[in-house]
Amino acid sequence: MGTFEFETNKGELFCLAAIQGFGSLLNIEYEPEETGTDLLAVFNKLTERLRNKNWLDEDFDGNMTVDSKMVTAISLCGSADRFWVLQSHVKRETAADYIYTLFNTGDDYLVLEQIDGEKYKGLLTSDIAAAVSAMFTRTPFTETAHAYPKIMPGEVEVITEQESYALVSVSKYTTAAEGDERSLVCLDAAMFLLLDNGGAYMLSVDETDDGVFVPVDKAGFDRIFLDREGD
Question: Given this model, what pLDDT does residue 34 score?
Fold first, then answer.
């Protein structure tokens, strides 16, 4: 599979999911019934939009066929073996927050960038490096020299007041099923402080209850996504 980029929203994702038989999607919530809207009218509007995007085809008997790339994308959203949620707070000229979800099953990866409360940018690929790179387009890993041997909790605010930075949290999940119920299980969580001019640091709780940021290199950072041990 090559790389497929697209733009979508919650309504389109759940419409495609319903057509493919998924009752829910991982880490995505959509409940139009709570607004009191006519669900049939919403569904018809969404299917028309999906046909215009060439993501949905319908024959004269009403049978619907979903584009193969979107079949893969929705399957990842609906039943991925694992997924990561990345939240990035970037403070440069102005503060900005970015949220990404990376879904993985086998050799397939889907990155969803949350644009706002409804819209997403998507990237479907079989290249994990491309998927991770897409999540850090606007929050690149810094490989500048480490300015500190460690950063204590009380020092973080002072340091980040003085230079541009990104604070990144990454949580890795899988799912557990009990009967017809599905729950999320957090397998791992990490936090990184990326200083534009002072290097990259990872939060460690080995030394204090509040944690200490210790230096980390690119290999240690990539291991969060690339290490399959224990999966």
Answer: 52
Q: Using DSSP, state whether 60 is helix, strand or coil.
A: coil
Residue 216 domain flag: yes
Q: What is the pLDDT of residue 228?
A: 46
What mean pLDDT comes out for the span 60-78? 92
Q: Give the number of domains in the chain.
A: 2
Q: Which amino acid is at 62?
A: G
Residue 212 located in a structural domain: yes
Query: 39-52 and 10-20 helices cross at what angle (nearest 10)?
Result: 90
- CATH number, domain of 56, equals 1.10.10
Q: Return the closest-CA partner of residue 225 out of 101, 115, 122.
A: 101
Cα four-point dihedral sign 104, 129, 166, 193: positive
Which pair of tokens denotes residue 83?
């997924």
- Whole-angstrom CA distances from 230 to 137, 188, 189, 226 are 28, 11, 14, 12
Range of the domain at 68: 4-76
Query: Is residue 173 a contact partner of residue 85, using CB atoms and an 8 Å limit?
Result: yes
One domain, residues 148 and 69: no
Among candidate residues 167, 141, 3, the one with its CA nearest the CA of residue 88: 167
Global confidence as pTM: 0.88
